[in-house]
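Issue 218. Parser rejects a valid record. Input:
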Amino acid sequence: MGNKGKTLILTSGTAVFGVFNGGDATDVVYREDTELPLAESVFAPASAQVHPLVVEGLGGSMAARVETEKLVLAAPGVRGIVVRPGLVYGYGGSYDLPALVKLARDNARGAHWGAGATVQGYVHLDDLAELFCLAVENAPPGTVVHGVSGEVSQRELAAAAGRMIGAGDRTDSFTMDRMFGPDDARVATGISLCLNKRLSSERTRKLLGWSPTRHDILEDLEFGSYASDPTVHTE
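Output the parser choked on:
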């Protein structure tokens, strides 16, 4: 390979590009070389009406993550690589999807913030595993990799979760405070579900020859690995 030192891969995430927009989609799709961290006026504009404590918490945690990314990319004596996966799905796992299903069960139908037009990139676990292998084999030192194969809106995910529990296509529009709960994990999930996280993986695909094949996140949520878990169904 010609690179000195061992390989060090940091699994980061798309929340470094997370943008509040009141439940509506944003237009900007971020590339691998976009300068970070995003300014507060970008990720939490006044028009989104986000509570200052939420803005402060997200800004601080993402600034720390970005600093870690930079340290890995510039680390001497190693081949530093950063991978930013989208919403990972497949085999019944994920961070956000089980939370969406629970929200649908608690509400007796799918739910989302505002209009539900918030958009985020996603990737199937199998495609992501292939991307990690390609990065280990071929990525030059200092490479940032975006693991995103497609995009999906929160309303589409909420509707699929509602259909999966037998509640049909109708969804409820929540205010942000209803997306959150009293415990830290629920707050973190609620914030994640309210963010636009739009990333391009065009450069990653060209550099590493990555060709993701799975684009069935809605089908997997409604009929596949998530639907096969009896704990996610209503009685």
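Fixed in the parser; the record now loads. The chain has one domain: 8-224.
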